[in-house]
Amino acid sequence: MAKEHIPTYNLKTSRAVHREPVQQDDFGYNNLPENRRIKGFELYSNHGMRPAIGPLRSTFYRMGISMRGTADVQLGLEHYQHGNGTVNFTFPNQLFSKYNLSADAFGYYLLFDTDYLEELVPAMNMATEFPFFGFHGIPFFQFEPAALQQIEFFIVRIHEELQGDKAGREKAIKMYLYLILLEARRSYDRQQLGSDAHLSVTMLLVRRYRQLVSEHFLVYRQVADYAALLHVTPNHLNRTIKDHTGQTASDMIAAMQLQEARSLLRYTDLSAAEIAYHLSFNDPSSFSRFFRKATGETPLDYRKAYLGIASA
């Protein structure tokens, strides 16, 4: 099946996926008049955000900051829980989910297109300058109090620029966004999050395997494929993953397939049979057994339940 069937949202099409139909909040881009909107950039608070998002892909970058409360985030194979002062980053074409927002949860999130900061950071250099926007970086971490305070200050200034009509507002918004990312990078560096020096050879292998599966699971579907990429034997890779995670290497590939299946069932009209072939199952019944074993329900029951919730 052609890859274009994978549900991938741009800024224009994603709003209905992450925002409730009725919006009361006027922060940032929310309820912003058309003539004040900025091409390629959006800012929101979590007021008015849907309680569950994804699994889905987007064509843009995302930065989410938790000021208080908790929420669960799934980025590829990695699960994280937001707390006070945590931040998560996603980049184009990455599988992303957010759910289980606590009643007291409050935070902000910023969305921007790949070329939005081109004048300041060429798109090809984004993951180099800001490593949390890449498969090899750490996409979730805790801000120190001073860094969090500074970043919130810049977010509020972006909100003020969006609401106003001062000269140079669009350039100012880009500059504030760059300063937010720069502050995040400095916090990242202070915490030495990009260093693998503290990891054993074994844990480096586990981390790299997770990253490769998250990135390539639609192309490489066998453990042997990843073993070749990692220059180890399939048996060594299987044993290492099992010993350190409790899962088999195949389990991790299946976990990404399951996320992809959920995304396709939620956000497309593809039949279960089409999804089965897209995920390289031999036949629809094999896919149905796989999905039911993992979730306790058939693909169609899962779709019906989600659509019932979404339309309620």
Automatic annotation (TrEMBL):
One of its GO terms (molecular function) is DNA-binding transcription factor activity. SUPFAM superfamilies: Homeodomain-like (SSF46689), Regulatory protein AraC (SSF51215). It comes from the Bacteria. InterPro entries: Homeodomain-like_sf, HTH-like, HTH_AraC. Pfam families: HTH_18. Residues 207-305 form the HTH araC/xylS-type domain. The keyword Iron does not apply. Keywords: DNA-binding, Transcription, Transcription regulation. This is Transcriptional regulator, AraC family. It comes from Chitinophaga costaii.
